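Researcher: Let's walk through a ligand-bound prediction step by step. First, I give you the protein sequence. Second, the SMILES string for pyridoxal-5'-phosphate. Third, you return the three-dimensional complex as structure tokens. Ready?
Model: Ready.
Researcher: Here are steps one and two:
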Amino acid sequence: MSRHHDEFHPPNRILLGPGPSPVDPRVYQAMCSPVLGHLDPVFLQCMDDIQILLREVFETENKVTFPVSGTGSAGMEAALVNILEPTDEAVIFTAGVFSERMLEIASRCCKTAHQVKLEWGNPVRGSDVTDAIEKYPNAKVFCMVHAETSTGACTPLDEIHQALKGTDRLLVVDAVASLGGHRVEVDKNGIDVCYSGSQKAISAPPGLAPITFSAKALEKMRNRKTKVQSWYLDASMVEKYWGVERTYHHTAPISMNYALREALRIVLEEGLETRAERHKTNHLAMVAGLDAMGIKAGVAPEFRAWTVMAAYEPDGVDELKVRQRLLNEFNIEIAGGLGPLKGKIWRIGLMGSGSTKNNVLLLLSALETILADQGYKAPGAALEGANRVYSA
Ligand SMILES: *Cc1c(COP(=O)(O)O)cnc(C)c1O
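Model: Step three, the predicted complex:
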């Protein structure tokens, strides 16, 4: 018999890339529970629990809050196909791969998807929003990414809220790489549609995309003149399964919902603020450790995401070899750059249960060893740099 017929035993990697992130043993345990029918009263309770827990994590009172069956991109698609109609104009602020993906999807949903093109590595600023309101008076839906995983930039949502307040614009925010690592505060920040993914800072496996719709978003959706272009992601139908009607729409991925429920419990046991602080501290320690080695972080310091960062590869280093040795000898996954940043940066994720002091020190030591072997002369010691943050 060939290998193809053997049992599959994947290694237990330390996932420090832009996702997926390490999964807590409690979440694996939850996934082993017996599969129930998708209309079993006990599973319906589980669904109710998930909606309540999700509202707490999103920090919203929004009634329509549920996990889309699919990965983060399904959440993105669900947000845009439901909120946009063919006659609409939308504004999409792009500064990386995922905001460009939003633009691509939006352009398939509505007449005009205006691109406000920012330089990669920049966050969206309140002034960008104010300018766009003026420039595109007929665009009523504004879309942006909170933590842009391809660059490590984090958009200040309070600024965006200030700029949109009192206008009739709807705000769509991608919180795939931030929810569970940063406070997203959907209601406080006036977000109308917000979606995330299970496998980043929430630390469950990939496969579900939590989403939430404000009353203002629902009103726009209820007044649609055209049907949502996607049957599978049509929130007006999916909502009837997650709401009181319990009408079958599609079979919920039962085990993944068990996983999400447990992962959300872990998030809330820690507390959103404590968890955000943990992400921040470990991020700062990683930046300081890299800096001591002479490796620069991308993005202006005040706009760096705490969940995922860009680290500029030193000159003369074979970046692919570095990543291969990290994986093969140290069991650590990090990622390379995408698009214009390919071959320039490493993307390092410290997300959910992956954001630990232990992981920061381990990755720094491993990088130090591998770079020294490649002849790189670091100006200082990585662990000393990181420990300055931890002992502060
Ligand atoms: C990962 C990611 C996505 C896409 O999620 P998938 O689960 O890969 O489909 C979208 N937006 C951001 C910001 C992400 O980090």
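Researcher: And what stands out?
Model: Residues 25-269 form a domain with the Aspartate Aminotransferase; domain 2 fold (CATH 3.40.640.10). The chain has a mean pLDDT of 97.
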